[in-house]
């Protein structure tokens, strides 16, 4: 009976003091929960990964690294040096404008542009064009490098990774730009030369569209790179093949098609244009026209960055 009395007492209604103790305990629990630091979201993995020698970065040139088309700036420099007449300059400028405004690449029109460009350098020495290209870079290109994109490339270099330009522009022009920016090297369109003199023909075709992706694959195989750990940067939907084969694709100053594709696939976007210029998305650089001056051989100039 004593035991029964003990259970009976335990079931009695709570006293005012017990109610007070329970409320105080609950309040303390709520307060401590509110003051506890919120769980931290997992930190985004470091990128680029420092010391990852199997990773590299590939940058398109026109409107990605540099404002405008390298070929057009190169043409301005050649005109200044009397390589062709004003009538040819006007035609060349119109062809560039057509590409920028149309937003499409008609094969027949592109062939006409390439033929015009190659005819300009036919018969000239490769060494001469290389020397002139250095001067043209200082005159027309150096001030047109996008600081934001340049910083992206430098981040890869600082991480100990290699960085290449991949462009339809002439490989000599691309190599000059890469060297001036401290990059590893360049993949570009190669034009035929015999005895150090341009013949006016291409070696293969312009490094454009799917050809860029093939060039990156070939380089990655030769250099022992893991493309899933590599990054690629471009402004144009024409470079979707190249962007699609790397693990870290970036749309930089993207045209309308690339911006839409990037959003659909969760790719990162970067836009370094002013508001006025950014409104003009959908106007591509003159990619595919870059055949003014090709390489002295079919090989691409690949130079290890001096650290």
UniProtKB/TrEMBL annotation:
Stored Pfam families: HAD
InterPro entries: HAD-like_SerB, HAD-like_sf, HAD_hydro_SerB1, HAD_sf
Keywords: Hydrolase, Membrane, Transmembrane, Transmembrane helix
Record has Transferase as a keyword: no
Chain intervals for the UniProt region annotation (Disordered): 16-46
Low complexity: bias regions: 34-46
The family this protein is said to belong to: Belongs to the HAD-like hydrolase superfamily. SerB family.
Protein name from the UniProt record: HAD-IB family hydrolase
Organism: Streptomyces asiaticus subsp. ignotus
Source taxonomy: Bacteria, Bacillati, Actinomycetota, Actinomycetes, Kitasatosporales
């Amino acid at each position: 009976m004593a035991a029964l009395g003990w259970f009976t007492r335990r079931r009695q209604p709570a006293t005012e003091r017990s109610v007070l103790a329970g409320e105080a305990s609950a309040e303390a629990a709520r307060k401590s929960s509110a003051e506890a630091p919120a769980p931290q979201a997992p930190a985004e993995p470091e990128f680029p990964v420092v010391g990852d020698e199997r990773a590299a970065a590939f940058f398109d040139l026109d409107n990605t690294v540099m404002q405008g088309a390298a070929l057009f700036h190169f043409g301005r420099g050649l005109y200044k040096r009397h390589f062709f007449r004003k009538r040819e300059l006007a035609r060349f400028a119109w062809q560039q404008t057509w590409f920028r405004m149309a937003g499409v690449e008609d094969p027949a029109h592109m062939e006409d542009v390439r033929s015009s460009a190659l005819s300009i350098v036919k018969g000239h020495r490769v060494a001469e064009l290389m020397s002139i290209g250095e001067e043209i870079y200082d005159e027309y290109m150096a001030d047109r490098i996008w600081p934001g994109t340049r910083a992206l490339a430098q981040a890869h270099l600082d991480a100990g990774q290699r960085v290449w330009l991949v462009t339809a522009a002439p490989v000599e022009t691309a190599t000059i730009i890469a060297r001036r920016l401290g990059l590893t090297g360049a993949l570009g369109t190669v034009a035929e030369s015999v005895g150090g003199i341009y013949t006016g023909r291409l070696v293969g075709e312009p490094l454009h569209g799917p050809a860029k992706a093939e060039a990156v694959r070939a380089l990655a195989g030769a250099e022992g790179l893991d493309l899933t750990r590599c990054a690629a940067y471009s402004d144009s939907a024409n470079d979707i093949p190249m962007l699609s084969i790397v693990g870290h694709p970036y749309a930089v100053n993207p045209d309308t098609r690339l911006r839409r594709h990037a959003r659909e696939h969760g790719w990162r976007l970067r836009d370094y244009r002013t508001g006025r210029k950014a409104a003009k998305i959908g106007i591509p650089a003159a990619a595919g026209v870059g055949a003014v001056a090709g390489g002295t051989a079919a090989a691409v100039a690949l130079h290890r960055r001096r650290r």
